[in-house]
Amino acid sequence: LSTLHKLNPEGFAQATNVKGRKRVYFADNEETLLANGNTTKPKAIPGTPFWVITNNNTSRKRQMVEQVMTHMEFQPDLIEKVTGSI
Prior knowledge:
single chain; Replication modulator SeqA, C-terminal DNA-binding domain; three-stranded antiparallel sheet; 5 helices
């Protein structure tokens, strides 16, 4: 996530509006994520002003990265390669 932010901070900021059906995945502060569930285990994304929930299984993590990269308009083959390495 830090690398995606470094490549395109503005695109990453817009992509972090991605949300699940019941959860907010990204926020600019820990409190917002905790307000959406106290088991989300928020963690700061190094080198960015963003926080991400970490209490997810691998499939959900892949899906979150895929959604961010799709919103940032990365090529599908690169998205597949990145998410496959998670």
